[in-house]
Amino acid sequence: MLQTFDERNRDLIVNINGELLHRDKAGISPFDSSVQGGDAVWEGLRVYDGRIFKLDEHLGRLRRSARALAFEQIPPNDELIEQITRTLEANQMRDGVHIRLTLTRGVKVTSGMDPRLNQSGPTLIVLAEHKPPVYADAEGGSGLTLATASIRRFSPDTMDPNIHHNNLIQSIMAKVEANAAGADDALMLDQRGFMAETNATHVFVVTGGVVETSHTVACPEGITRETVLEICAANGIPHAERDISLTHVYNADECFTTGTMGELAWVGRIDGRTIGGGTMGPMTARLRRLFTERTSSEGRRVID
Prior knowledge:
Elements: E1 13-16, E2 19-22, H1 33-37, E3 40-48, E4 51-52, H2 55-68, H3 77-91, E5 97-104, E6 123-130, E7 144-148, H4 169-180, E8 185-189, E9 195-198, E10 202-207, E11 210-213, H5 223-234, E12 239-241, H6 246-250, E13 254-259, E14 263-270, E15 273-274, H7 282-295, E16 300-301
Parallel strand pairs: 7-8, 7-14, 11-12
Antiparallel strand pairs: 1-2, 1-6, 3-4, 3-5, 4-16, 5-6, 8-9, 10-11, 10-13, 13-14, 14-15
């Protein structure tokens, strides 16, 4: 599955440290930490009718990640929200929009790994695009296809997955394997062989009416993931977080992925095996409906 280019994005205005620039003119220094070493944190945000769903939670995760990486300066939330609003206004956007919010450690005085070379404060990038849920086209008839990758997710003693950092080579290598296998995305396991997540999303399985997902030992504390668990709790839907092996994945009645960019997307096949009946299951359909109800009524208003 390859995302198609949306012509509405041809003349995007990008926000870099408060400066609004045409996408073809936007750029950052080759001395910026994101270029030098992927030394940055990021969040994906989705705009629904002028509101950003779970904005406070996303900004909280951005701040926790930056603190974990020992960023000396982190802009306050009101400043971040102001720049998000300015970017949306400049692009005349208010719905069906995905925002990639990036905070780098900033520009270095000379090339090098040492954070002490960063002496001018962080770089803030706000990139807003017209973008429907990323898996919408792939879901049409047979759902998403996943292929298990040989690349394993890091454990907290190698690189804590709850730091939402920009060094995504591990995910990209898994995606390369998925592309070679003709799958939409890669299913990634933890170091013990249990399901972690895909290269881009969290994964849920439904077995015997119970909605299950992996622990966050080898995947981030996903905000859409947490929303699904909240929905289950609020609606009396049995749910659990546990270690899930591939045997349980293959034998699940239903499977779906969760993420800000893709929302809830159903999975039809994994490693060539049909999951359940090969159609979107009733629990997945119900959770998608309940999720849509929340995104249509909740969120922080950032633009009228």
